[in-house]
Fold this protein.
Amino acid sequence: MRTTTLGGDGPEVGVIGLGCMGMTFSYDMETPRDEATSIAVIRQALDLGMTLIDTADVYGPHTNEELVGRALAGGYRDRAVLATKVGIVRDSVEAADPSNSSADRALDGRPEHIRASIDGSLRRLGTDHVDLYQLHRVDPQVPLEESWGAMAETVAAGKARHIGLSEVTADEIKRAQAVHPVTSVQSELSLWTRDALAAVLPYCREHAVAFLPFSPLGRGFLTGRFSSIDDLPQDDFRRALPRFQRDALQANLAIAGRVREIAAQAGATPAQVALAWVLAQGRHVVPIPGTKTPKYLIDNAAAADVELGAAALAELDALPAAQGARY
Ligand SMILES: NC(=O)c1ccc[n+]([C@@H]2O[C@H](COP(=O)([O-])OP(=O)(O)OC[C@H]3O[C@@H](n4cnc5c(N)ncnc54)[C@H](OP(=O)(O)O)[C@@H]3O)[C@@H](O)[C@H]2O)c1
């Protein structure tokens, strides 16, 4: 896979990474998980050049880092650019929503929490350092400079090589940069979630900050897998998201349908078109699609070679806005 540099000073990574969240946590727990398959997916990702491997301490909690640690044992660790996150202590729709001011009970950006958490992450991941340590959310009760100062301490201590932010504004990136370099920003970006295009993505481009789109497949929706909320397991987190509600999802099927048509014209899959559009937003953009399924992994890796012509890109740019807020 072709590669790019993560931010101004970061390591080289494949232009598409792997999100591991769904391997132990989210979107549902009804669907049986097969650890051997998940481990094989992570190792195959490395073989395919998808070297950025993303997890977080809250996924599980802890089980996701443990799984990634087992996958990277036995000689795989050095082939990965290993990224984890700190700062959400109870994941839920409310906690993940950066506009929800009552979510702060689920966030912990206190320096003492960050200092203590890195050691747990390293133990579970079976490594003495992570390549990228990310502040999962800004805690409204803690000045960002204090949280970021503690993140910088993990670099000084040799426990993290680089640090990044998640779901922040351009102003917050700037404030953090005044304390310590920001290598990456991880926020949602996909054909149906384009908020970052207005200010954050251009800011990152101008300031040599890598942008890591999460949920680049629209939490699976853009791949055309769902035609109704009834397709989701009963305990699926997406059932609580506005865009997956019955009427909104029905309206949003027009977006997935058009992606499918453009994919057919391009000789690609809908997932590949969704990823190729994200990649077309700039060389500093490294999406981290999530999968625990070997055939989807191969599908996603091949998106790095899908060239969408100007006409297809213009059509994708012109897709209607999604119905329903993202959280
Ligand atoms: N920073 C944050 O706050 C934040 C928030 C959310 C996610 N993340 C990170 O971003 C990563 C990806 O996001 P995400 O998992 O939310 O959403 P996503 O990547 O948009 O979609 C994942 C879903 O799409 C399915 N899928 C993947 N490739 C496919 C393909 N080629 N064809 C058909 N279906 C496919 C997966 O199925 P299977 O699982 O069944 O294989 C899964 O249900 C996560 O793993 C996590 O690391 C970060």
